[in-house]
Each structure stands twice: as structure tokens, then as C-alpha cells.
């Protein structure tokens, strides 16, 4: 196959009218920026929020938890002697507003930028966030033509828990304007925030004439979120619109002004914030060890997921946008791609330390709660095992003496605690069996990554000895053998040898020439292997320490390629399996039943690429083949969330993206396999 070169990959995503010819096309592409503490802004390339999680300012009050939506959107109207032009773009219960028809260009480099052309007037709107603060800026650059014009800006205020919808009149919002700043207070949420204008006259919208058609101007109701409608969710929202800000623009004038929305009464310059975002992107680019365009752009995408956790004063990883918090399993799988391939070693140490602080009974948290009042959930048997892999990879990338000293002094005790608890037994029936393999789960427990449960229905029961857990267990023991001194080194070596013997004898499925997915137990106590063809077996090929022969590893890769590979993700079941679900659509219960029963997962593509290159001899030819296999996933960066990789895809053509529009381990594994196996 011919070589595919991504080294000159674009620094900025540019879209023209051909990319948003109608409303439905326009809402399929969106953007994301974030502030490093759990807050973010997100909308579509035509400016219509397509989901309840979208807004220009989602804040985190106890980072990265306690997230709320404050500034849903902002719209513009232009008035001149020819009439009024409305740039608002959204669906309502009664009609569709198509201001995007005046949108001539959209770009996303460090931040999103909309360019509108109305006759001989050009308006450029840029949206940014202050890193480390719950603050968004909306900046306007206007080049006016031959007419005097007035530009009316309407902010859409709200104050609600992230992802919810609300009747705007039930939010208990109040406003007061003084010296160019609107102060918004919420009786319901007991919160206050600020909206400051650098220019313009504030007009109280309650003074506008009302009618039967428009009984109020200070509330906007009946706004629909199109993707939420499609998914059968509560999708009708409303906002508080107490003021317009009127900007006078003379004929031939170039005008620059901005707005700042924040939980703090700040006085920053919006255009300076945009410059700081350019600077931050350059700093992230400069950290990347290889001068590769795609790797640099992905490093900027990775930055969205790395956030500060208030409870530990350390870094953590948000699992996905727009709704996931920091998950232990996802963090450890994403670790190499997000912070090692991008050379963010200080963040790497911070993340490892953050999770070490939460080890309990040998378990890493599965998920941190959405509010500080709750406690972490520990229902996972794989997060702790992936932690060892993260430690190993950290030492592989950061080779300085201080790196190993950090691991031995601050992380090694947690590693010992994990191994000891897995050996003797811990929560969720997790324990080392007589054959030295790890078993876990019972009844309604779902403690591997295939964790869907619908009421009392366990969709993918994997109680017993999952294949990836035991591949990780062996890897963990070998990591401990490498780290530990004296007799402990020998102890870990001997146990790892026993695990290897048991694994090969019990997991190899000679009929299918691959690995069983789980070794369960029959009523009489004998082994009950699950012969489902699943991608979990790839883990046994790609880890630093593996147990299988080269022929076995090649057979696994061939099986996965034949049965599970798609251009966008790796299926969780082959299409010929009678349980296979081709699409992740419908009611929540229907989607849950498809989640791990055929749906393709983006992050596993990284596993497959690494396994493919390894089993084809790590040759240049294998790398070129892998680049071609990866090309559809690179193309996906231009779809959905620009620069992001979706959580999941339909298992069958056309492999539509679903779930989170940008998932940490999906982005991270794309970075990792590209960095380690292709360039």
C-alpha cells in the first residue's frame, strides 16, 4: 500500500457555505473549548445549540464538579434603512430561525469564529474562554459598508444544572444593569454572575411593545434542541432575555467590541483572551516532541480533557464531553495519549498522584461524583489494573531520575496495596483464584468496561475471569517485578509465571483461533468459557508484558480484523452474532442494549492499530498499512465535534457517530497509536 502522510495536517478547521447548506447539515458539526477546571463552551458551526448541554458558558463551581449552564447563547439583529436582519439561528416550537444564511465562513483554530456578511457589512464573532476561570468572552469585529447601522445583541441567560431544560419563568432570575455590567441572580440556585459589555447602550426589553403573538420580551420560550429531539429526550428549553445591547456603527466604520460573562466581576479584555488562547495553543504545540501537524492539532484537542480537581489539588481527566466526569478506567487508558505522547509530564505525575490518593481496598475509583457532597464509586476491577500500565508508560517516556523517584516514593505504596488486595480478595468479589487468575463480579455487578445494566437486566454479564483483566494482571505483576527490590522481585516473577501458564491453558480458544472473552463458572464449579468474539482480547497483544506466542497474537489480530474492524471503531460483537445490534438508536433502554452488543468504539481502534503493526513485524510497510486503516478516523476529526473523536459509532454502515461527541480515550488512543506506531 502507498504511504499516507498526515504531518502537514491543518492547524485550523475552515468551513464554507457548502458545509452548512441547510439547517440540518449545519447542526451536524460542532466545536468545543474548555477552561481547564471542568467548564466549557460548545455549539454548532451555524450557532444553533443542538443539545441541552450546549452553551457559551458552562461553569464548574467545585472543579471539575457542580456544573451549571449560565449563558446559553447570544444573538444579533442588524437595523438600517432597509429594515431588520436577524442573525439568530435556532428551532422553536413554532418556527425555524435561519440567520445562518448570512454566515459566509466558519473557522476553528484556537477558538471558534463566525463570519457573517449582510450586504456590504461583515461581522466576525469569536468566542473564547479564560483558562482556569469560569469566564467566557464573545468578541466582535465589524467592517461596515455604506449605511449607518445599529447592531442589537441579545444574551440568552439561564441558571440551571448542566444538561437540564427549564421554563425560564421558573428559574427565579433577576437582573440589574450598572456601568455596562448586568448582574444576574437566581433565587432558585442561589447564584450570581455577571455580563459586561465593552460598548453599547443597554435597552430594557420589558419596555418593548407586547402583543398576543409576543406577550413578553424578557423570556424566550419553546427553543428546541434538535439532537435531543432525535434521541427522545426532553428538548424544549427557555431563557431569560432582559436586555438588548445596541451598538451604533457608522457608515464605513470598523468597530471592535466584546462581552464578558463570568461568575466573577472581572474586567478582562476579550481580545486579549483570544490572544492568550493562541499563545496557549502554541505552548502545547511546542511541547509535542515531533514536528507533526496532526500530532500538534490532537495535542490541542487533548487539552480539553485535562482538568484540575479541587478535592486533590491535582490534575484529572474528564472522560468525555458533554456530560462525563473523571472516570478511573477512562483516565488510565487515556493517560499515555493525553499526557505522555504530548510530553505533559508534570500533568502525568499530577494525575497519577490524584488517583493514588483515592485508592480504597485496592481499587481506584470508577467514577467521581457530580457533586462534592457525594463519594466516589469503586465498582471497577480494571481501573486499578490499567493504573499499572500508566505507571509503566510514564517511566518509559519520562526517563529522568526524578521520575522513578516520584513513582517509588509517592505511587509504589498504592501499587503494593492494589496487588495485595487483589490477591487476598476485595470488594465486588474481586480476588485471585487458585489458578492465580483474577475473578470478579456476581449478581448485578458490572465491573468491567462493558458495564451496562438496565434495572435488573445485566446486558453484558462478564462475571468470572475477563480476558483483558487477566492480561492486565500479568502486566501489573511484571511491572511490580521491575520496580521491586530483592525477594519481592522474585515473588512477583514467580506469580507472573503461574498466571501465564493458567492464562494460556484456559483462555486459548482453539476452535476460533483466538481468546475466550470470559472464563465463568458452571454450577459444578468447572470452567465455563464464553466464546463470544469481542475486542477485549486485543489487550493481551498490546501491553508492555504479554503472555502469548507471536502466532497466537497474529491469529487474534486476524480474527478481530475479519470480524470486528470497521473504518470508524471496532465492533463489540461480529455482525453475524444473533445478539448483534447494528445501530445505537431509539429509547434509552434500546440504546443501552446496543452499547456493547455490536456498537463500535473509537478508542479500541488504537488497540487494533498497535496490535496490527506489532504482529506485522513493526515494519515500514506495516506502518503504512496502519496509516491507511487509520485514515477514516483522521477524516472523522472534520465531522461531529471538530478536532474530537466520538465515543461510539454504529457497528454497521454508515457508522454514524453516537454518544459523547468527544471522548477522552478516543482522542488519546488516536494520539498514542499514531505517535507510537505510525510516525
UniProtKB/TrEMBL annotation:
Gene Ontology molecular function, alphabetical: 4-alpha-glucanotransferase activity; amylo-alpha-1,6-glucosidase activity
Domain Glycogen debranching enzyme C-terminal, residue spans: 301-672
Gene Ontology biological process: glycogen catabolic process
Entry-linked Pfam families: GDE_C, GDE_N
The Glycogen debranching enzyme bacterial and archaeal type N-terminal domain, residue ranges: 29-254
SUPFAM superfamilies, per the entry: Six-hairpin glycosidases
Gene3D superfamilies: 1.50.10.10
Name under which the protein is recorded: Glycogen debranching enzyme
Organism annotation: Eshraghiella crossota CAG:259
